[in-house]
Design a protein that fits this description.
Helix content is 27%, strand content 22%. Strand 8 and strand 9 form a beta hairpin. The radius of gyration is 29 Å and the shape is elongated. The protein has 266 residues and is an alpha/beta fold. The protein has helices at 17-27, 30-46, 111-114, 118-128, 145-148, 167-176, 195-201, 203-211; strands spanning 54-59, 75-80, 89-90, 103-109, 129-140, 179-187, 219-226, 248-251, 256-259.
Length: 266
């Protein structure tokens, strides 16, 4: 990644601090590290054929891990909210400090899960992307072992540190904003509870899920492309009525149209 000097952009924390810590703590575990390696490989494959001038990494893992080490985009930036982190720009996913139609690629890691306004996050991504630009979303999958762990907050939703959204819901949000979903993949099929003992004995689930491309992994990766419709102005069809009808002649002396009479008429 290009080493850019940090910009002095004032930002207020919009992501849940408890959610950020919980997410990073999970990625520090054995199951999280294995999932992270798989996610990095998937994002590298998705972004291999994406070219452009500017790419942005935002979300919980921005500055902690890089997903664009093999990207061909010329300049790459990372956006963070916590002071002291190794990021190039300070800001929030809900208010990206970039002008309209500027980014060729945006990678958002768990920005929807920990945000208080996930719709605004997607709107900001759509705003800063150039037409035909790409975005890659990384989030926790509620239909997984990680999602099952969220059931403990069923009777106390306020204690929930992250909100998991299904891929069907996220794809619907993207469709409303005019994105075309190119690919949806999940990774990390091992249980998140039981510690390293259960994780080591359940590695076969990762092989099974990757082989059959199951959508029950703990993390989903969605690759979408911004589409802008080219509007063509359609003029109303207008039929021009002919001035002369069959059987009509023009009389220059009279200055009007008269009907031609037969020669034998009296």
């Amino acid at each position: 990644m290009n080493k850019e000097k940090s910009l002095n952009v004032t930002a207020t924390t919009s992501l849940s601090p408890a959610g950020i810590n919980a997410c990073r703590d999970w990625y520090a575990s054995s199951a999280g590290q294995a999932t992270l390696a798989r996610v990095q490989a998937i994002v590298s494959r998705m972004s291999a054929d994406i070219f452009g001038y500017y790419a942005l990494e935002t979300g919980v893992l921005a500055g902690q891990y890089s997903f664009l080490q093999e990207s061909r985009v010329a300049s790459q930036f990372s956006l963070g909210e916590v002071l002291g982190e190794p990021v190039s720009i300070m800001g929030t996913p809900e208010q990206l400090p970039f002008v309209l139609n500027n980014m060729d690629l945006v990678v958002a890691s768990h920005a929807l899960d920990c945000s208080r306004s996930p719709h605004q996050v997607l709107r900001e991504i759509e705003r800063v992307l150039v037409p035909e630009g790409h975005c890659i979303l990384i989030g926790f999958n509620p239909i997984s072992f990680k999602g099952l762990a969220q059931l403990r907050y069923l009777h106390n939703p306020r204690a929930q540190r992250c909100h998991f959204y299904s891929t069907f819901r996220v794809r619907e949000w993207l469709s409303v904003l005019g994105f075309d979903v190119c690919e949806t993949v999940s990774a990390g099929f091992c249980p998140v509870f039981g510690g390293d003992y259960l994780f080591k004995r359940a590695r076969w689930l990762d092989r099974l899920g990757s082989q059959f491309r199951l959508m029950t992994g703990n993390v989903y990766i969605i690759h979408a492309q911004k589409k802008v419709s080219n509007m063509t102005l359609l003029l109303p069809s207008r039929k021009v009525k002919p001035v002369l009808r069959p059987g009509m002649i023009v009389n220059p002396g009279a200055g009007r149209v008269s009907r031609k009479e037969p020669n034998n008429a009296k």
